[in-house]
Amino acid sequence: MTSSASQAPGPAGPGEPSADLLRQFWWLHDARWYQGVARRFGQDAANEVNAEAMQFVTRRIASAYAREEGLGPGLSAAELATALTGISELMTGDAVEASNKVTGEESFETAVTRNFALEMLARAGTLEGYECPCPQMRAGWFEGLKTEVSDHRVECLRTGGSACRFRTSTASGAAATTDGAAAAATTDGAAATDAATVPGKETP
Known about the structure:
Blueprint: H1 19-41, H2 43-69, H3 77-92, E1 96-104, E2 107-115, H4 116-124, H5 134-144, E3 149-155, E4 164-170, H6 171-188
Antiparallel strand pairs: 1-2, 2-4, 3-4
């Protein structure tokens, strides 16, 4: 990738704030509005609004990223893994430590081992009751990239996991998985349940 969207921002000019400083202000704003909504209307409302806002913003960011990179719809697993790495770095800098590893022709896995937002919430004493908007964030990314996927959340840092871990299959890979599960369920005489279609559901 060669476009400006995938490259780290250059040094700020005289009198211009650095990208890192702007991200710090964004994090501060994000924390303050969440805390404000939680105090006035309760944490359930704050979690709901946070998830809605996150999906809206990440859809726009991913769409802009795709235009800058010249990415068309229906990306492969390898292309998605690369795109998610670039978008995450663009949004968060080093405040989030994440990796995207291709695990098959039609699948990849994301592991987030550090999330500064969770650290801030823990310091503020409001981590309990917080619902991570990661599923909505990722849904926005995939919508912006115009690629259908099946996205499983299998582990979460907030609930004690070693990482926030997602397993993702592209549309053709997801269809194969669903067909296989349906066939197995028919053999067993049981109804098939595709947990992958439930955003954010922890699955093995």
